[in-house]
Design brief:
The complex is a heterodimer of chains A (about 325) and B (about 270). With about 325 residues, chain A is mostly helical. Chain A folds into two domains: about 50 residues; about 220 residues, Orthogonal Bundle (MetI-like fold), CATH 1.10.3720.10. Chain A is about 80% helix and about 5% strand. Chain A has 13 helices and two strands, in the order ααβααβααααααααα. Chain A has a two-stranded antiparallel sheet. Chain A is globular, with a radius of gyration of 27 Å. The relative contact order of chain A is 0.13. Chain B has about 270 residues and is mainly α. Chain B starts with a helix and ends with a helix. In chain B, about 50% of the residues are buried. Classes of the chains: A mainly alpha (about 325), B mainly alpha (about 270). Chains A and B meet through helix 1, helix 5, helix 6, helix 7 and helix 8 of A and helix 1, helix 2, helix 3, helix 4 and helix 5 of B.
Chain lengths: ~325, ~270
C-alpha cells in the first residue's frame, strides 16, 4: 500500500512534466507545416493571409499586364469591361493554380509586445504607489480592507475588464487622445488596469518582508519616510519586486480576453499609438475557428512563439529574481 | 527640503493608490449598475435560446466541476510528492515546472487541448473544455498543497512515524488533516479562478444556446457566451452579456470570500 501510494504520487507529479513537454511537442508538431513553409521569416513578415504569386517571374508578368490594362481602361470604356472580365478570369485561374497564401507573424508579435509595454508603463508607477501606500503609509485598519479589496479585484475574470474597457473606458480615451476607440493604446491601458491589482499585491508582499529592525534604525537616524522607502525598503526587496513585475509581464503577454475586445483585431502594423492592430492571443481567439490547413498551422506557430516567450520570461524571473523565495 | 520631498512623494503614492482604486471602483460600479438593470430572475429559468442564462450557468459549473474532479486529486497527490516524498532535485524541478505552467498563457493551453482532443475526436466537446480547465487548475492545486504542507511542523510527522504508522498513513491521516483548511482555501481560490476563464474554452468546449448535459457535444459556457453576446450589435444581447458578467463576478467574488473567511476563522 505504501509503495502504491508513493508510485501514484510520483506519477501525478511527473504529469506536470509530461503536460509541459506535451504542450511543447504538440504545438511544435501542429506548427510544423508553417515552420517548414515560412521558417524564421515568419517573425519578420507583416503579411497575413495574403495571396501572392507562386514565383517571381509570374508576379512580374501580372504586374505588367495590370499596367497595360490600366492604360487601356483610360483609353476605352468598352474595352475596360472586357478587360476586367479577362482580368477576373485570370485572377481566378491564379487562385486555383499559381498562387499561395502566405502568413507572417510580425503584426501580432509586435502587437503583443507593444500592448504589454504600454500596460507595464501605465501600471508600474501606480502599482508601486499602491504597494507603498499599503505597506508603509496607510494605518493597519485601512491597509487591511484595501489590501483585500485589491486582491479580490485581481480575481475578477478578465473578460469583464474587456467589456468595461470597450463600452466605458475606450470612448473616453478616444475623446481625449483622438483616433479609434479600439486601438493599441486602449488595449494596453485596460491590460494595465487588469494587471494592476496583481502587481500591487505581490509588490506589497515583497515590501513587507523588510525586517522592521532595519526600518526602525533608519528612522532612529532621522530619516524621513521617503528616505526609508527609497534607501531601505526598495534595496532590500528589490529582487522580489523585479520578480513580481516580470510575473505580471508574463500575465500581460498571454492575456486574451481583456485585449480581444479592444485591440481591433486587424492584421495591420500600427503606425501610431491609437491605431488598431492585433496580438497573438487575440489572433488565435478570433481566427482559430475558421482556420484550416496552413492558416491553422500558422496560428499554432504563433501559439508556439507565445509559449516560448512566456516560458522564457517566467523562467528568467524564477531563476534570477525569485530564487531565494522558497 | 528633505521634508518637502518626503511630503511630495508620499502624496504621489496616496494619489496613485486613489487612482488605482478609482479605476477598479469604476469597473465594479459599472458592472453592478449595468448588471442589475438587466438582471431578472427569469434569467435562471430560461436557456440562452429563449433569452435566459440557465444553460450557460449550469454548463459553466459542470465544466469547472469536472475540471476540479480531475485536477484536485491529481494536484494534491502531486503536491504531496513534491513536499513529502520527493528527494531534492526531481521534486524541485517539478515544483519549478508547475510554477511555470501556472503562468502559461491560457489560450495556449486551449490550443494544446484543441490539438490533442478536439482534432482527434472531430469536434468541440464539453469534455475537451473540462480537460483544458483541469490543465489550468492542476499547477494551482499543486502549488497550494505544497505550500500548505510546508507549514505543518516536522514534529507531527515524527510523532506519527514513532507510533509505527507507515508513511502514507502519516501523510493522509496526520499531515493532510493539519493542513486541511489551508488546502481547502487554495482549492476554492483555484476554482474561482478557472470558473471565470474564457480563453481555454474558446475552441475546446465552445458554447451552446441549448441546455445539454451531453459532454461529447459543444457545451454551454457562460464566459464564452459573454464574449459572443458582447460583440453582437443588438442592445439586448449586450444587456444579457452584462447580466451574465454580473452573475459571474458575484459568483467568483463569493467563492473567493468564502475561501478567505475559512482561513481567517482558522487563524483566530
Amino acid at each position: 500500500m505504501e509503495k502504491i501510494f508513493q508510485k501514484l504520487s510520483l506519477i501525478s507529479a511527473s504529469l506536470v512534466f509530461v503536460i509541459l513537454v506535451g504542450i511543447f511537442i504538440t504545438l511544435f508538431n501542429a506548427a510544423k507545416p508553417a515552420i517548414d513553409e515560412f521558417g524564421f521569416n515568419f517573425i519578420t513578415d507583416p503579411a497575413w493571409n495574403k495571396e501572392v504569386p507562386l514565383n517571381g517571374e509570374l508576379s512580374a508578368q501580372t504586374s505588367q499586364e495590370d499596367v497595360i490594362s490600366d492604360e487601356e481602361d483610360m483609353a476605352d470604356d468598352d474595352e475596360f469591361i472586357a478587360d476586367e472580365d479577362e482580368e477576373d478570369m485570370m485572377l481566378e485561374d491564379e487562385d486555383e493554380v499559381e498562387t499561395k497564401t502566405i502568413y507572417g507573424g510580425l503584426v501580432p508579435i509586435v502587437g503583443t509586445l507593444l500592448t504589454t509595454l504600454i500596460a507595464l508603463v501605465f501600471a508600474l508607477p501606480i502599482a508601486m504607489g499602491i504597494a507603498v501606500f499599503l505597506a508603509e503609509i496607510a494605518p493597519k485598519n485601512i491597509a487591511y480592507p484595501i489590501g483585500i479589496a485589491i486582491e479580490l479585484l485581481a480575481a475578477i475574470p478578465s473578460i469583464i475588464f474587456g467589456m468595461w474597457g470597450l463600452y466605458y473606458f475606450a470612448p473616453i480615451v478616444a475623446d481625449l487622445v483622438g483616433g479609434y476607440q479600439v486601438s493599441l493604446l486602449t488595449a494596453g491601458l485596460v491590460l494595465g488596469i487588469m494587471i494592476l491589482p496583481f502587481m500591487a499585491a505581490i509588490t506589497r508582499d515583497s515590501m513587507n518582508t523588510t525586517p522592521d529592525v532595519l526600518k526602525e534604525s533608519a528612522y532612529a537616524m532621522g530619516a524621513t519616510k521617503f528616505e526609508v522607502i527609497k534607501d531601505i525598503i526598495f534595496p532590500f526587496s528589490k529582487v522580489g519586486i523585479i520578480g513580481s513585475i516580470i510575473l505580471a509581464l508574463g500575465r500581460a503577454l498571454g492575456e486574451t480576453m481583456a485585449v480581444a475586445f479592444l485591440i481591433g483585431s486587424i492584421f495591420v502594423l500600427p503606425e501610431a499609438i491609437n491605431d488598431p492592430t492585433i496580438s497573438i492571443p487575440v489572433a488565435m481567439a478570433n481566427n482559430f475557428g475558421e482556420a484550416s490547413g496552413l492558416g491553422e498551422s500558422a496560428l499554432f506557430y504563433l501559439a508556439f512563439i507565445l509559449f516560448l516567450i512566456s516560458f522564457a520570461v517566467i523562467t528568467f524571473a524564477k531563476f534570477y529574481f525569485l530564487k531565494g523565495k522558497k | 527640503m528633505r521634508l518637502i520631498v518626503n511630503k511630495v512623494v508620499l502624496g504621489l503614492s496616496v494619489l496613485s493608490a486613489l487612482i488605482g482604486l478609482a479605476f477598479l471602483g469604476w469597473i465594479l460600479v459599472t458592472l453592478f449598475i449595468k448588471g442589475l438593470s438587466s438582471f431578472h430572475f427569469s434569467l435562471f429559468v430560461n436557456d440562452l435560446i429563449d433569452g435566459g442564462l440557465r444553460n450557460l450557468i449550469v454548463g459553466q459549473f459542470i465544466l469547472a466541476g469536472i475540471a476540479a474532479v480531475i485536477g484536485i486529486p491529481i494536484g494534491m497527490v502531486a503536491g504531496i510528492y513534491i513536499r513529502e516524498y520527493g528527494n531534492g532535485k526531481y521534486a524541485n524541478i517539478i515544483r519549478n515546472l508547475s510554477d511555470i505552467m501556472m503562468s502559461a498563457p491560457s489560450i495556449v493551453i486551449g490550443a494544446f487541448v484543441y490539438a490533442i482532443i478536439v482534432v482527434p475526436t472531430g469536434g468541440t466537446s464539453g469534455f475537451a473544455g473540462a480537460i483544458a480547465l483541469a490543465v489550468m487548475m492542476l499547477p494551482i492545486v499543486i502549488n497550494t498543497t505544497d505550500n500548505m504542507l510546508s507549514l505543518v511542523p516536522k514534529e507531527l510527522r515524527e510523532a506519527g512515524i514513532a507510533l509505527g504508522a507507515s508513511k502514507y498513513k502519516v501523510i493522509l491521516d496526520i499531515v493532510i488533516k493539519a493542513a486541511k483548511v489551508g488546502i481547502m482555501t487554495g482549492i476554492l481560490l483555484a476554482f474561482a479562478r478557472i470558473i471565470g476563464e474564457t480563453a481555454p474554452l474558446l475552441f475546446t468546449s465552445e458554447t451552446s444556446n441549448y441546455f445539454t448535459l451531453d459532454l461529447t457535444q459543444s457545451f454551454p459556457s457562460l464566459t464564452v457566451s459573454i464574449y459572443d453576446l458582447a460583440n453582437e450589435p443588438e442592445e439586448s444581447s449586450r444587456d444579457l452579456a452584462w447580466a451574465a458578467s454580473f452573475i459571474l463576478t458575484v459568483l467568483v467574488l463569493f467563492i473567493n470570500l468564502t475561501g478567505r473567511f475559512i482561513t481567517r476563522n482558522k487563524k483566530r
